[in-house]
Amino acid sequence: MAVYKRTYKAYSGPLTPSWSRFTVLSRYGFQTLFQSRPFTAFTVLCLIPFLAGLAFIYVVNNASVQAILNVRFGQTPIINNAWFMTFLGIEAFMTFILTAWSAPGMISRDFANHSVQLYLSRPLSRAEYLAGKVSVLAALLSLTTWVPALILFIVEATLHGNGWWWQNLWMAGSIVIASLMWIAVVSLLAMALAVWVRWRIAATALMLGTFFVLPGVGGVMDAILRTNWGMLFNITYDLSAVWGHLFRLDDAARHAGGFDRVPLWSAWGTLLAVCAISLWILVRRLKAREVERS
Question: pTM here?
Fold first, then answer.
């Protein structure tokens, strides 16, 4: 049949609901990440602290196993708020590597192949595009931070008994809030750096510099000006200071960790500022069209 004799009609099949269109990007984002065997292996490696914590909780709450291993833990509770904060700190370090590895490529690849304009020319807004990308990181980091931490919390409450659950229920909220705070900061920052430089290697280098070089700049400023405000350039320190408050560390523990060197409100303000600036960069740099200058 000749082409001009064909009757072209609009697509009349089922449509994806508008509220869930961003999940298409999430699905293909997961597929792309886990096509890499090293990435898959490292993701599994991030679960080792959880397995170690599970074994430790079992030993602490089982006198028979302690007798076999010839260990004694005394009367002081070991599985407490400081223990869960330390566990989250270990997982945060591992998920930082996971984010620095995966996040820059998720967006820089779209810029390199000029596919951002194709995405945004569809019925997909910039917010939905970002939601599709960030949801991949949020799911990965959730499965390696607050989800295993809550499982450990439930296991400890079950094995310990004696009202431990109700006495420490506030700790479950601290685990979730602290983890979501870390996920928001590291995900938005990684995405913003990737959109800003549009080059995977450069974005990864900037991510490492933000967490490892910038604190050194703040330390130099403290030494020269004889102040502690340079600590605010250390995002890891800001998170630790806020976490210390969320997990209700006593004054001695907070002083030993140096978490009282700056006011708590300034640490909160720095983290919120990082998220706000990252969102501003994402909104400004993500565009449905791009002007090529020769």
Answer: 0.86
